[in-house]
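Appendix B. Raw example, untouched.
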Amino acid sequence: MNENERGVTLIELLAVVSIISIIGVVIWGVFFQGIQYSQKSFSKNFMIQETNIILTNLIKNHQTVKSYDIENPSCKIVIKSRLTADPTVYETVEYSHPKICINLEIKQADGSVIKSKSNIIPSQASGDTTLTIIASDKVDPANKVSIEAQLYRLKGADY
């Protein structure tokens, strides 16, 4: 071998390749962890928006209609509002989403829990009613949002 020859030995080449591989794996992991966190955050914000829409509509419904039925079958909410004294005439609104499971719990002022299928007459309510809407991601059930609000009606108001 000549002393003037310059080159890279196999050991040096393997060392460089292994260092670059380790750095690549770390960067790859951080990149995908960031994407996963971004998707989870996006999903949580979307669930918050959906529950706020449902909550706003339920509060408005509670304050303005004579009575309504509320049902909560598997991951959706169905509201049948009676706009007149005729019990056969009602308007149905359904809240559901293919990626979100939506559940609710209603507690009256006396602490009793209203079942998932109930007839609610706001003018006969014995005080404020607490409504809790729970939305969870169907893909990742640990990713969930819970929003609680008071359903109220002005005293003496008959709509």
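End of appendix B.
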